[in-house]
Hints:
The complex is a heterodimer of chains A (772) and B (151). Chain A contains 21 helices and 26 strands.
Amino acid sequence: MNSITNVSRRGFLQGMLSGAAMVLCVRVVPDVLWPHEALAAEGETAVDRAVLHPAVYLGIDPDGTVHIVAHRSEMGTSSRTSLPLIAADELDADWGRVKLEQAPGDARFGNQDTDGSHSIRDFYQPMREAGATARLMLIQAAAQQWNVPASECTTELHAVVHNGSGKKASYGDLATAAAKLPVPKKEDLQFKPASAWRYIGKGQPSYDLADLCTGKAVFGMDARADGMLYASVEHPPVLGGKVKSFDDKAPLEVWGVKQVVPIDPYKPPYVFQPLGGVAVIADNTWSAFEGRKKLNVTWDDGANASFDSTEFKKELQATARKPGKVHRNQGDVDATFKTAPKFHEADYYVPLLAHASMEPPAALADFRDGQLNVWAPTQDPQNTRETLSKLLELPKEKITVNVTLLGGAFGRKSKCDFIVEAALLSRKSGKPVKVVWSREDDIRFDFYHTVAAMYVKAAVGAKGMPTAWLQRSVFPPIGSTFTAGETYGSADEMQLGFTDLPYDVANIRVENGPAEAHVRIGWLRSVANIYHAFAVQSFADELAHAAQRDPVDYQLALLGESRKIDIKKSAPDYPNYGGSLDDYPIDTARLRRVVEIAAEKSGWGKRKLGHGSGLGIAVHRSFLTYVATVVEVEVTPTGEVRIPRVDTAVDAGLVVNPEATRAQFEGAAVFGTSLARKGEITAKKGVVEQSNFHNYPVARIHEAPYQTNVYIVPSDAPPAGVGEPGVPPFAPALCNAIFAATGTRIRELPLSRTKLKLAPSAHPQAKKNPSA
Amino acid sequence: MVQLKVNGVQRSFDGNPDLPLLWYLRDVLGLTGTKFGCGMALCGACTVHQNGEAIRSCSTTVKDAEGSEIRTIEDLAAHGLSPIQGAWLDANVPQCGYCQSGQIMQAAALLAKTPKPTDKDIDSVMAGNICRCGTYQRIRAAIKAAAGEHA
């Protein structure tokens, strides 16, 4: 482990340093910390989320500039800011003197797959170690210079000070000397006490804030290279379809069009391969779009041409009424059902959804002299590199995946099919090529959030409390993307708000039924939690009303006494989001606390609401974070829904950047509004019927919640996720509020499928709800 | 040959005059601050000013812009941050930020016409600009704060 980094050795650092003079700068901290761990990571696949010991890059220039590599992708969650903040805090660095560099895809950085809300969770400690290592080396260098024991020295902002003499040296001045010292062992590191934190728990605005407000920020869509061309691809309208014929001449007559290039269809399983089709390459994006209109492709649609989402819905609902594969079995549900005097049961349905990030998929590739460089808004640059290597038959070392800012992603940009298209087309044309997906391409050829049918049945005993609880979900699984023909959901999907049912019910069974995929299935912000939370939290509210009990009181009764649930006893395969149950238990005390806070802050039971207004609550643990949401609705006499207010309580363990966290939960309420109100993808004859924001509407400013209040529970528990956990409780809380306001129970999303009516006086059931 | 002014610079374009202004700005002039979101004037990501009015550049051809003064996000801060951009920074509006150029250009046009917009004004003028991250609450707050600064 050397201490002076030869910067030129590391291509990725060149962009970080402006001008050749900087190349010879001294870095006090080695570029790879603990290389054995970095090497261990080298062989991992990028989808392996178990890599918890990354290499971390942090360096200091003699001018005092601190360079920190942001190795996770920035799609709006602020992880690009919040992770380096942790290192800067332990270093006692001045944030204003920190320069960030976005890492390209490389296993030496540790896991870069930015999904699953685990950036802070997995890299909080490595970032602290990176900062603490540098700080200790700077202290040691100063102590040597002053000939005093290191124990008498400490740091203040960006400088080392000697306690006795008051001597002081800046980090920049110490950098060269510190670089000659051996790297301290992990066990010798000292971490700041929480009371001394500068940034952790306080946060900072996004590093890119000013650029984002002035048009300077560079997204994948904005990547440019000299002599570049622009491409647009006509994909098979039905998944698995193949080109039969096309006109390769007519597009060339369109102004600006340069070339027409067919792309081979994928071979099952499709994973992240391009869909195939025909590309038009032009000297501007619009001409490529226009050229496509002249292709006149005829297709062989293949087997999925029989897919009809309306028929498919019936199939799913029928399957949800049949016994499935058991994922959790506690007590004896069947025996209890046999003797129970009372039951409640319900079917729920959530349709296919598209991601529709504001930046459609786009990527620039430059293939020349056997070397491939791409610039892309990817959530997973390591997987992108591996996929490019495999599909283009190029060694990984010949491929650089540069990560731009992501104009939204929500899981879509974990899949690199559009980046592979750019690479194939650059190789074919011999020029840098930017592939741009139109909005229509984005919505019609997504890796969709899957459609799901759920069935829940409970035996109801004293005070309306369930004595047995059966729940079943049926959905074309994400596994179908990776294994052709896969029909069963994995433990990873079932854990998302279903296997982990936190209620104090003696007998619980959780099942999954089979369903075939006819479109590409992927993951969307909070994934299966969306439909599972919708079913479970709607059902809990139904039980409360059936028992004529207040939904908040009833939720607390369902959660039962504060305890850590021994989930492995009844669900041995429960994955717990890859976290250990010791560090991240299913803790009903924390669920209860967020329910109580959300209820109190919302004025539950205390505020007088007008006719047509109501409150609804839902509570949900996902990505190891506990969230309760109260939604207030106003339903107009014509059945229109307004959302004046949302109150969300969040226990995400230690929160590094509270402002960014609040923003995530504000945004999650809007995301939840979109999917609950109007979000639905349908298909006829295998062809997706939606194409743009007129028929796949997402929430606009007047439809979104007017005010979302976020309450972060102070906690020193290990950090958990914040990007996704706000989404799952929103739709059920909204629908529960609609029930409180109107007496209409929504069991199918989106809401636009149900014509809401406001009764002249409140519904009798709704009346009994003190929150209405 | 189409003549137009972009961010104060006189330009002439001799390509296909049906080219949408968006792609002229992005692909021809390299002004990538203006974003592509839908191509159908449904999302507002491509909003720029034509003679001071907010327009959707994806659905405005270069020919439609002939003789006009076009202003993009790049020019809004040409002489320091505009009040609306300052308000955006103060309110920490962006998440991913992709739609924000369009939001800011739309909000700037709103404030130019309606210096003290009500919630209703904001709803009706900003409803054409989608933010998928859901920053609407902060957009509203930033517009109101900027309106205060105008006073």
